Each structure stands twice: as structure tokens, then as C-alpha cells.
Amino acid sequence: MKWEEVQKIYPDQYVLLNILESHIDGDKKYVDEVALIRPIPDAQEATNELLRAMPGTLVYHTKNEEIVIEIRRRAAFRGVST
């Protein structure tokens, strides 16, 4: 499912998603295709779901035009990558 479809079905709401397809451009990951797991009715529950999210799963608000995730690289410490 495309993000635009999710936005039309659940306007101005948090949703729990599974990432199906994405691509990386620089230090950002752009999500192209998602599977909707379920809508989330309030911000507190969205926070709880986010804290429990497994890799490949995310909580996002449909007010956002696109799904963009900033990639944070681990810093090297004394020449060793962690």
C-alpha cells in the first residue's frame, strides 16, 4: 500500500506500519510501500507502540507528506566501529 492511500483512509491519525519497500538517499531512508497494521487512536498509545516496535515496524502520523527516516550512523571510537 502506498503512503498516500493510508493518508486518505486515516486522515490526521497515528498508524502502525510495517515497511515493505524503501530506498536510501544520503542519510535518509524513504519508505515507498507499507502494510498497515492498525490505526492508533491517541498519542499515548502511539508512544507505547513506538517503544515496543520491532525492526521494520514504525508508528507515523498521517499529517506527514511522506515517510522519511533519518539514518544515524554509529560513531567510530578509537578506530573501532561500534
Descriptors:
single chain, 82 residues, alpha+beta, four-stranded antiparallel sheet, two-stranded antiparallel sheet, 2 helices, 6 strands, 21% helix, 45% strand
Could you give the order of the helices and strands? HEEHEEEE
Q: Estimate the helix proportion, in percent.
A: 10-25%
Number of helices: 2
Strand order of the largest sheet: 3-1-2-4
**Which structural class fits the helix and strand makeup?**
alpha+beta
Spans where pLDDT lies below 50 across 5 or more residues: none
Q: Biggest β-sheet, characterized?
A: 4 strands, antiparallel
CA-to-CA gap between the ends?
A: 35 Å
Mean pLDDT: 91
- Name the shape in a single word: globular
Q: Oligomeric form of this entry? A: single chain
* Radius of gyration over C-alpha positions, nearest whole angstrom: 15 Å
Number of strands: 6
Strand content: over 45%
Description of the molecule:
With 82 residues, this protein is of the alpha+beta class. Helix content is 21%, strand content 45%. The chain has helices at 3-9, 43-52, and strands at residues 14-25, 28-40, 57-61, 68-70, 76-77, 80-81. Strands 3-1-2-4 form a four-stranded antiparallel sheet. Strand 1 (14-25) and strand 2 form a beta hairpin. The longest helix has 10 residues, at 43-52. The N and C termini lie far apart (35 Å). The relative contact order is 0.26. The mean pLDDT is 91.
